Amino acid sequence: MNRFNTNKQGFTLVELMVTIAVAMILLFVVVPSFSGIIESSKERATRDLLVSSIFAAKQQAQSKRRTVYICPTTDDINCANSWGSNWLAYEDEDDSDDLSNGDIVFANVSSETDLIISNELQIAFSPTGHSTANIFQICSNTESTAAYQIQLTRMGRISYLTPTGGCP
């Protein structure tokens, strides 16, 4: 009878160290590509939020028979002087062409990207569905180029353009 059992199961220290080394190499290769995927997802989400806000504002203007605006905001209460990553959509109840106490804010959106560039500070939708023509650029948080470019026509239609130009 053999006193020493030679059929023991397990890993040697060398096998364990090799496995950990391979896992670390894979981790260093995979993690940077995950951050790119996450950033791309945030840019796409911002694009989709902006387009949804545009469609909601157009629908609200047509159904309520009132002018509806989309404007940038920094404090979630007032319209700002430049586009960033947050915006409001509101019904202009008092026909003042700007956000005031009597107006109804029906969308307050905060996006994951740092910057949206726009030609116009305020986008207006008339009761007929017509809008202020505009081009939006959604900028990447990590690169100095536009990730997406969205065109809004006077008829209130959306089209996606190939991004041109840089972002600050």
From TrEMBL:
Family under the similarity heading: Belongs to the GSP H family.
The name this protein goes by in its record: Type II secretion system protein H
Pfam families: GspH, N_methyl
Entry keywords, A to Z: Cell inner membrane, Cell membrane, Membrane, Methylation, Transmembrane, Transmembrane helix
UniProt-annotated location(s): Cell inner membrane
Membrane topology recorded in Swiss-Prot or TrEMBL: Single-pass membrane protein
Predominant location: membrane
Record field: transmembrane: 12-34
Domain General secretion pathway GspH, first and last residues per copy: 50-156
